[in-house]
Amino acid sequence: MPHTESAWKRLRQADKRRRRNRVVAKQLREKRKVLTEALKGTDEAAKTKEVKTVQQALDRAASKGYIHKNKAARLKSRLAKKLKAPAAAPAAK
């Protein structure tokens, strides 16, 4: 356990940040899961809407420091790549 007042404060801050980060990370996972389901469908408008929603959430999380800006950029790039990919092409025989 911390002995100094500053150590106690750091413990409180770390706990508060951990709880907040977990909430944000869970929200991002849920949004990406919804997007994955939308990408499986055929409605192009729904796909682009969900991609935009997830990209905005990633930008917001990166700007507030919940995730690194490079991670947000990487995830956004992968989402755009999935959106542009042709619908599941039938396997060639």
Name a few traits of the molecule.
93 residues; mainly alpha; 3 helices
Describe this structure in words.
This is Small ribosomal subunit protein bS20. The protein has a single domain (5-84), classed as Ribosomal protein S20 (Methane Monooxygenase Hydroxylase, Chain G, domain 1, Up-down Bundle), CATH 1.20.58. The chain is built from three helices and no strands. It has 93 residues and is mostly helical.
Secondary structure topology:
Blueprint lengths: L4 H36 L3 H20 L5 H16 L9
Helix pairs in contact: 1-2, 2-3
Nutshell version of this structure?
With 93 residues, the chain is an all-alpha fold. It has 3 helices and no strands.
The low-confidence runs, each spanning 5 or more residues with pLDDT under 50, are none
Structural class of the secondary structure composition?
A: mainly alpha
Q: State Rg.
A: 19 Å
The number of helical segments is: 3
Q: What is the CATH superfamily?
A: Ribosomal protein S20
Judging from the principal axes of the Cα atoms, what is the shape? elongated
Strand content: under 5%
- Order of helices and strands, N to C? HHH
Give the rounded overall mean pLDDT: 90
CATH class: Mainly Alpha
Helix content: over 70%
CATH architecture: Up-down Bundle
CATH topology, by name, is Methane Monooxygenase Hydroxylase, Chain G, domain 1
Total number of beta strands: 0
Largest sheet descriptor = none
Total domain units: 1
End-to-end CA span: 64 Å
